[in-house]
């Protein structure tokens, strides 16, 4: 059986849980106490050299890190990842956008929800807010013209983007001014096998501390 190395409040891990749910694939969970330093212990660094979750362990023991790489692996041969080279690469385009631009929402959300924002340099927060606003504006523009980010069908690019975009309000990034993004959020929520459960940082009493 597959093993998912997870941290429940992580939306990067949630992406993988979402796809596993869509595909109805059973798996077991290994929770990694990232705020207590477990990710930086040699045992976990052997699984993922960056010390981050999510990581997927296959039946044969091989391990795969990076949420979008895991989505790409699991979606191979399914309707969630086009087989044709252009469609496949288009999904990769948006997965890269997610990592390069939408990760700003993830960081701001983490700092906001765990009380760290006030401790951060204002210039850094401003820079991230600029990147995040621009990312939302790009998505608004793109999703005005089509139902899903890579075209007419729901793919892992939507899953990946959705993980943090639909929580942008928690980072004080108003979604209300983005009607096309809001409609897309509703479309994603309506997909068969959608996973509604999101865990708050408050379930982890250590999440107010800095990551090691
Ligand atoms: N680019 C990575 C980011 C993973 C990431 O930042 N994971 C966080 C939880 S959301 C983590 O494990 N942080 C602990 C650490 O980096 O030490 C991905 O998409 O999987």
Automatic annotation (TrEMBL):
Residue ranges constituting the GST N-terminal domain according to the UniProt record: 1-82
Highest taxon of source: Bacteria
Pfam family for this entry, one: GST_N_2
Domain GST C-terminal positions: 84-206
InterPro entries for the chain: Glutathione-S-Trfase_C-like (IPR010987), Glutathione-S-Trfase_C_sf (IPR036282), Glutathione_S-Trfase (IPR040079), Glutathione_S-Trfase_N (IPR004045), Thioredoxin-like_sf (IPR036249)
Protein name (record): Glutathione S-transferase family protein
